[in-house]
Design brief:
116 residues, mainly alpha, 3 helices, coiled coil
Length: 116
């Protein structure tokens, strides 16, 4: 499998696995801004209500871009790094096992040669 496909696969798996660490936060952010808007909309002059609501919506999107989306991406990246490290660890364990088998085989050959 080519490197780009492996990286994309790890990223997708990392995103899915990240939800186990922390559920998606954008719906909560949307809800918080919606609740805030319900609290303050009566304080806004009726002629400015649409503009104020758009400003709140834009602020919500900015908060998600600089906060929740960056944090999710960082979490996905950390999980991908973890998965890559675990894969490397497993490869090294197999190499160690192979070398231990080779050492055992060489010891057997040495014992046979010494006894001959």
């Amino acid at each position: 499998m080519c490197r780009e496909v492996r990286v994309m696969s790890r990223h997708i798996h990392g995103f899915n696995e990240s939800k186990g660490y922390c559920s998606e936060t954008c719906p909560d952010v949307d809800s918080a801004f919606s609740d805030a808007w319900e609290e303050i909309k009566d304080m806004v002059a009726p002629r400015c209500e649409d503009e104020a609501e758009r400003a709140i919506d834009m602020l919500c999107e900015k908060v998600k871009k600089v906060g929740t989306e960056k944090l999710r991406e960082a979490l996905c990246s950390a999980i991908s790094d973890k998965m890559e490290a675990e894969g490397e660890r497993d490869d090294l364990k197999r190499q160690v096992s192979d070398l231990e088998s080779e050492i055992a085989s060489l010891k057997d050959e040495l014992s046979l040669a010494e006894s001959a």
